[in-house]
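Just wondering, can you check both lines?
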Amino acid sequence: MQPPPPPMRPKPGVAAPKFAQTPHRSSQDLEGTIGKLWLNRIGIIAILIGVAYFLKYAFDSGWIGPGGRVAIGLIAGIGVMVWSENFRRKGSVAFSYSLKAVGIGILYLSLWAASQYFHLVPASAAFVAMILVTASTITLALTQDAEILAVYAMIGGFSTPALVSTGQNHEIVLFSYVALLDLAILAMVSFKPWRRIVWGAMLGTAVMYIGWWAEYYDLSERTVTVLFASAFFAIFALVPLVTPLTRSRWHRGYSITLMALPLVNACAFFGALYAMYSDEVVRLTWYALALAAVYLFLSSQFKRRVGSEPDVVKTVNLLHVAVAIVFITIAIPLKLDAHWITIGWLVESAVLLGIGVQAKADFLRIFAGCALALGVCRLLFIDNFYTQTLVFNARFATFLVAIAILAGIVAAGERYASEKEMPFVKMAGIALNLLALIALTREANDYFRRHIVELYQQRDMYETTRQLEIARDFSFSAIWIIYGAAMMVIGFWKRSAFIRWQAMVLVAVTIGKVFLYDSRMLQQGYRILTFIALGVVLMAISYAYHRDWFKLSPHKTGSGTEQESSA
């Protein structure tokens, strides 16, 4: 009998077939999770409850006095901490950290009882002792590379002010302590990629700040409060700058912390400032501009320190720029009034677009489009203008600013826009013509409205008023006809079918107005002028197409066809 052939081994670099892979045993994983993790935690809670009941019974029975009770707690807490190291050395790391959680909790509770319950030591002494416990836990976390211990230190650190509270206003002491704790956490994340404690620190800081604010804040505290709020903001703003020291671990893939932290930090800080300066718009404006400058600076520093790294780093850098843009956009309506807000947003969009084109940053182009949309929407639907002169007024000037920016977009789009961006360039061209038509139509309407209002103040002027209304309606048709003819000429001149089609649509709308409205409502003279003017324009356009003055038809020789611009 021949010996069986040796088992076949997969070649290097060749994946094993699917049937050779070990199936995933979800039921065993769930069982292990319950046995190792949840039963462990429930057991810790049960021990704490049992010890608490025993101590309560002993205390109620008078077996142990207040000093003895505190001493027992301190000794027990330290003992559990020391005992947990035996399990860590033997490889039971998770169980060791669970025991440390018990020991740390006992220490904090014992110090709280010594100060607040038994009044054996002053609150300041308990406060210092709790700081030592927190510092010791942080040291253990760093030396043992244990993020869970850092979480314990953070929870204990932010619980300390509440545990030793005297019910009095100690703003400087409280916020100085919180700032030092935040700095300690910032130092930790500069060496360790522990993202969770960053969010925990921000949450703890917010809870401390809001709790103090609701109880003690008044106007006399504002200067000091602004300084501390600025310090908290600065600490968390530095997180993206210190994390590149461990970027091999922080920047591996998508980082929610690095993405969301700048936004949350900015919103929290500006919200605090708004609560203090809601009645002082000028100062709030300067704060918004200062924050914009800070985020631009942080963006430059982040880019300088990290350099060319994965896409997530580039996104974080642009995110800082985006936050700066948001604060500039916020500052404009705070500082300016009426149409100046609109002009400010429009100019901002032009600046962002120029920078985005030069830097080839699509991110900035998107923000430029948003700022432009804000400005145009405000111009059309919000701004109320009271014009007294024709053309030379604030409204027409604001429209000219918007039209000029849209014209710049069209001109730049013809040179720099990609194929995907061309639809947006075309939309800008359409918006340009619509704004121009709206501006001219509103100017004509307001011109006649001013004269009609003057006549209403006099008696027996109905017939004159009616004549002005008819002249106004005729002026609308005249403006549209002339503008459509001008667009058609420009379309022929630039050999742009896109512009000519816009002209045709406008001419079609004008035809509808002339036949459906002007033929019934205008007087005989205006009716004649309208139809003759429309007919002349239509015949001229038709003749230009018929004669092919601009060589739009394909060459008979077949050597080429019309190459028209799409912008």
Remarks:
- Residues 26-60 form the longest helix (35 residues).
- The radius of gyration is 37 Å.
- The chain has 20 helices and no strands.
- Residues 471-553+562-567 form one domain.
